[in-house]
Amino acid sequence: MGLFEELKELGVNIDEGLDRLGGNQALYERLLGSFLKTMDTHAVTPDFDEEDLTDAIEKTHAIKGTSGNLSITPVYEAYTDIVALLRAGQPAQAKEVLEKVMPVQEEIIDCIRRYSK
To answer: What is the chain's mean pLDDT, rounded?
Structure first.
């Protein structure tokens, strides 16, 4: 099984992501590397500061955008909810969504890393 097949099993909509890129698989794979960098530099943990949500909103918005562009659906959908909840001043609910998505997010990241060159 290859990278795309494994990602599909994890809920990533590879076909939609490739459509955005004119079917360019090599470009999609390179952009998956950008996703990894975004996750490394914008990682959000459930212990974010509930008093000042500015940093958490900025980071979750960046992850939402990158994952959406690549159709990394489970991450995109969760971070869409997280951003909305943070902006609505509901950090406890945002933490719940983040905690639920973290296992699949880690599986997707691990999968991409295994195939990175």
So the answer is: 95
